[in-house]
C-alpha cells in the first residue's frame, strides 16, 4: 500500500515526464503555424495545469488556445508560448526540488 508521499511522488514523476511531451507537441504545432493544432494541443494541456495548481500557466495556455481559435497573428502566439516555456521550466525545477525533498 502506498502512503501519501508515495502517491505524491508518483503523480509528480508522471507529470514531469508527460508534460514536456505535451509541451513539445504544442511547440511543433506553433512551429508549423497550424492554428487548429495549436488550439487542440493547448486545450489538451490546460487541465493538467489545474491538477498541479499552476493557475497562472493555465491562464497563459487559455490565452494561447483563444488566440489560435481566433486565427490571431502567429507571432502573438509565439510570444505567449515563449513566456509559457520559461514558466514551465521554472515549474519543472520546483517540482523536481519538491520531489527530491520527499526522498
Record keyword descriptors for this entry.
103 residues, mainly alpha, Four Helix Bundle (Hemerythrin (Met), subunit A)
List the SSEs and their pairings.
Blueprint: H1 4-31, H2 35-52, H3 55-69, H4 74-101
Helix pairs in contact: 1-2, 1-4, 2-3, 3-4
Task: Provide structural commentary.
By secondary structure, this protein is mainly alpha-helical. It has one domain: Four Helix Bundle (Hemerythrin (Met), subunit A) (Up-down Bundle). The chain is built from four helices and no strands. The protein is elongated and about 45 Å long. The mean pLDDT is 94.
- The fraction of residues assigned to DSSP E strands is under 5%
Low-confidence stretches: none
Tell me the number of helical segments per DSSP (H or I, 4 or more residues long): 4
Proportion of residues in helical segments: over 70%
CATH H-level superfamily: HPT domain
CATH C-level class:
Mainly Alpha
Mean pLDDT: 94
Number of folding domains? 1
How would you classify the helix and strand content by structural class?
mainly alpha
CA radius of gyration: 15 Å
Q: Report how far the terminal alpha carbons are from each other.
A: 17 Å
SSE string: HHHH
- What is the number of E strands? 0
- In CATH, the architecture is Up-down Bundle
**CATH topology description:** Four Helix Bundle (Hemerythrin (Met), subunit A)
Global geometry: elongated
Q: Describe the main β-sheet briefly.
A: none
GO biological process, one term: phosphorelay signal transduction system
Keywords: Coiled coil, Phosphoprotein
InterPro entries: HPT_dom_sf, Sig_transdc_His_kin_Hpt_dom
Organism: Sphingobacterium spiritivorum ATCC 33861
Amino acid at each position: 500500500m502506498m502512503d501519501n508521499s508515495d502517491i505524491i511522488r508518483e503523480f509528480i514523476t508522471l507529470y514531469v515526464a508527460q508534460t514536456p511531451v505535451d509541451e513539445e507537441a504544442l511547440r511543433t504545432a506553433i512551429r508549423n503555424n497550424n492554428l487548429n493544432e495549436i488550439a487542440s494541443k493547448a486545450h489538451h494541456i490546460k487541465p493538467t495545469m489545474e491538477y498541479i495548481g499552476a493557475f497562472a500557466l493555465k491562464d497563459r495556455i487559455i490565452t494561447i488556445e483563444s488566440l489560435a481559435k481566433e486565427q490571431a497573428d502567429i507571432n502573438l502566439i509565439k510570444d505567449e508560448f515563449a513566456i509559457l516555456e520559461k514558466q514551465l521550466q521554472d515549474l519543472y525545477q520546483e517540482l523536481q526540488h519538491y520531489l527530491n525533498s520527499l526522498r
